[in-house]
Amino acid sequence: MKDLKIGLLGAGTVGGGLIELLENRQQALQKRIGRNLRIVAVADRSYARKAFLQGKSFKVSDDASIVLENPEVDVVVELIGGLDPSRQWVLQALANGKHVVTANKALLANHGQEIFEEARKARKEIGLEAAVAGALPVIRNLRRVWIGSEIQEMFGILNGTCNFIITRMQKEDMPYEQALAIAQEKGFAEADPTFDVSGRDAAQKLAILSSLAFDHLVQETDIRVEGITELSPLDHAMAMRMGRVIRLLAVAKRKSDGYHLRVHPALIDANHLLSSVEEENNALFTNDPYSGPTMIVGRGAGAHPTASAVLGDIAAIARSEDGSPEVWLSGTEKLQCATDAWYRFYLRFRTLDRAGVLASISRVLADHDISIASMHQEEGSEPVDVVILTHDARESNLAHALELINKMDIIRAPTVALRLEEPGRD
Length: 426
Ligand SMILES: NC(=O)c1ccc[n+]([C@@H]2O[C@H](COP(=O)([O-])OP(=O)(O)OC[C@H]3O[C@@H](n4cnc5c(N)ncnc54)[C@H](OP(=O)(O)O)[C@@H]3O)[C@@H](O)[C@H]2O)c1
Known about the structure:
The chain is globular. The protein folds into three domains: about 150 residues, 3-Layer(aba) Sandwich (Rossmann fold); about 160 residues, 2-Layer Sandwich (Dihydrodipicolinate Reductase, domain 2); about 80 residues, ACT domain (Alpha-Beta Plaits, 2-Layer Sandwich). Helix 1 packs across helix 12. The protein has 14 helices and 17 strands. The strands form three sheets. A six-stranded parallel sheet has the order 3-2-1-4-5-6, sandwiched between helices. It has a six-stranded mixed sheet with strand order 8-10-9-7-11-12. The protein is about 35% helix and about 25% strand. The chain is α/β, with parallel strands linked by helices. Bound molecules: NADP nicotinamide-adenine-dinucleotide phosphate. NADP nicotinamide-adenine-dinucleotide phosphate binds next to helix 1.
């Protein structure tokens, strides 16, 4: 099957991430898609300063025509941002018969209609998953998974910079300026954070989401926007006293008097799913009479999360161009599952309340390389419950140890063993 050839406009944070991802995942992608995804040309105004662009197999230039006018290129990936020259370049790419993938929310929030009209005329596809909430598949859900839905309301945490600042203010009782400085230090906020903290970035994303959810043209200017700069630690403390937390929400509601589109800081119930979205994470909560309430949460920005959304769109184009149906698996090899594992365990022993009981249990555990992190005994009439939390232990060792312990006279019921799952920990 012939390669899908990519022309990249802009090799900055996301463009650089895409080049890296395509290199690192080339073989897996080829297996999964059945085609090779290959960058053939990159245009970037400061390509000469970017060492990672040198010595590659693709052409590099500051002249966008090496991408736009290149007959080899099947898909143009626009990652320069802004409205100008992105708009002209995207239109030119479509006119030249190329599919387009873009992460440019400003472009889509302001010229989405025009771009999709050109794509329709050219019978080409536009991939835009990365324009809203990075790695979270919110666009795909709105356009595919929820195609039959009638979204009543959406609440988005769509700006990682604001969410990071707000949750730091809330948790560490710190003023806005201090939380902003930490966000800047960690690379979650720009040196000039105005676009993010004013709520404009979230408004552009909401314009795209509400256009798709409500199937009507929405522009950035239709959205009422308030930012987070006026919040103080007192607001967070008062909200918490009321059992609520503050988040910058992008809100879209379908109501009898029309659509309500807003971006603003708002108090939400501390028990609502959205209140658990902290730090730089993004989320989209939707409510629809058919699918019911749903929430997607995760990394909404950054080189790799955004590049993976771009890559997802490129892969979808490669598959649809190819026309062959998706296969269940790219191979037939059987998965090798591990037979043993390491866990920390919660163990509850139902025992007689006698001297030496704990010593007997601990001895068997120690004989099986299981060390105790903490121990707790409930007072009461016999038999009593003794709860032990272990350090990391081998599952198979614990099974042997419990086999012996459960046979002891002092044990009055089979021991309960629960694993501590700690996502993200190796
Ligand atoms: N960064 C994220 O986490 C993220 C997340 C979601 C969506 N996005 C979107 O992805 C797009 C790219 O963002 P980014 O963060 O990768 O931006 P970036 O780091 O500023 O990269 C843009 C690249 O394009 C180059 N460029 C700008 N204007 C150009 C022009 N006229 N001609 C040729 N090259 C040009 C820039 O060169 P210089 O180095 O000279 O500036 C830079 O290398 C934007 O639309 C952004 O909104 C980004």
